[in-house]
Amino acid sequence: MNIELLTIGTELLLGFTIDTNAAHIARTLGEIGVRLVRRGSVGDRGDDIRDAVRESLDRTGALITTGGLGPTRDDITKRVVAELYGTPLEFHDEIWQVLVERFARMGRVAPAVNRLQAEVPRGATVLRNHWGTAPGLWLEDSRGIVIMLPGVPREMRMLLAQEVVPRLAARGANGVIRSRVVRTSGIPESLLAERLGDIEERVTPLTLAYLPGYDGVDLRLTAWNLPSAGADAALADGVGLLRERAGDHVYGEEERDLAAVLLDAARQRGVRIAVAESCTGGLVGKRLTDTPGSSDVFMGGVIAYDNAVKTQLVEVPQVLLDTHGAVSEEVASAMALGVARRLGVSLTLAVTGVAGPGGGSQAKPVGTVWLATALDGAVKTQRLVLPGSREEIRLRAAQAALLFGLRRLQSGARLDAPTDGAPTPA
Ligand code: AMP
Ligand code: MG
């Protein structure tokens, strides 16, 4: 079954409200094998809603809308759709009584404007909303289906799960649309694609999408309209193949965060972590402490932004700063070793770089970052030249530092391996 989605609300067009409903509905439909073929947004304007609904019905014959079911003047979805179907709105006293009781429980009298919410296009199925005042509506005739849901995300989600999904699934959707994600970091999209080679042919009937972000490239495999067990099996094979080919660039699956992976790796080995951060200003520590339960592994750290903090709190010798500058392999190493000594932990991550937009030079352009990790007193370094804005450079640097720490732990057995100093653009 194919379906379209129309999210309604002027606030969506103005960009003040992020259209989270659309993403949620898209994912949910995929799970039951209903293919979302198009989605759009319009403001709270009758003509625009009417045109969009008519086009969707002509094109696809099925549409979900969200928004515009409230009691105020700008809530016109129901009226416009009823007009389009040439069906009158009828007042349903039992819906009104539910509203009256709902308000009574809050010690209030139901306002007269809410009577509008008890009006239902003739022939529509009412989708009971136990989480708010606007019921959902399912209108269907030879032209097709329009499923109207409220805009408030929580109410929309509950109605979708409890009233819409069972009805759509019962229409014999053929199979599921299901995805799995393999997360990679430390390798650009183009190099990753080279490494994966003819993978697309090997994973058919799955599709593969490359989703690059500041934290790396996610690889999303999707099974379309396969029976549930078949989809799971094909995805498991595909994930295995991706992992094999992407090798140690893979750090996790689904929404797994690299910081959580590093914390687990450290926990397993009984290692505690500390950080010394210059250009990331605490982002690495933030990432680590975003993960609940990090306190048994993460000790803390120093935001060694000014050189005075580098020398006084993490014991960077002044001579290294004078000779090589703050953004240098020598200073990054000294930061990693210094914070390890000061805090008495076995693994430290140090970051120093030029986040920009100013401060770059020919030798050290904006985006130059030196990372250092010290593991049991042995230090390794890495130089990166990261792309993007100041914010992106800082986010990428934090991610790269976490990845470097993880690699150190994973290769802990061969600590004497050559220094991994080659540039690795994230
Ligand atoms: P409505 O049902 O149109 O009265 O919408 C009520 C509220 O739900 C709006 O004020 C928004 O804050 C929120 N909302 C509406 N549509 C969306 C959407 N597509 N995504 C996220 N929030 C929404
Ligand atoms: Mg609205």
The portion of residues assigned to helices is 40-55%
* Individual helix count: 15
| Oligomer class | single chain
- CATH class of the largest domain reads Alpha Beta
The CATH architecture designation of the largest domain is 3-Layer(aba) Sandwich
Average pLDDT confidence is: 92
> First CA to last CA: what distance?
40 Å
Query: Ranges with pLDDT <50 over ≥5 residues?
Result: 413-426
Tell me, briefly, the overall form: elongated
What would you report as the Rg, rounded to the nearest angstrom? Answer: 28 Å
Strand order of the largest sheet: 2-1-3-8-7-6
Largest sheet: 6 strands, mixed
What is the count of structural domains?
3
Structure characterization notes:
The chain folds into 3 domains: 2-169, MoaB/Mog-like domain (Molybdenum Cofactor Biosythetic Enzyme, Chain A); 176-253, Alpha-Beta Plaits (2-Layer Sandwich); 258-409, Maf protein (Alpha-Beta Complex). The chain is 40% helix and 25% strand. It has helices at residues 10-14, 20-31, 46-59, 77-84, 93-105, 153-169, 189-196, 199-202, 228-246, 258-269, 283-290, 307-314, 318-324, 329-343, 390-410, and strands at 2-8, 35-42, 62-66, 89-91, 119-121, 125-127, 136-141, 144-149, 176-184, 207-213, 216-226, 250-253, 273-277, 298-303, 347-353, 368-375, 378-385. The structure holds adenosine monophosphate and magnesium ion.
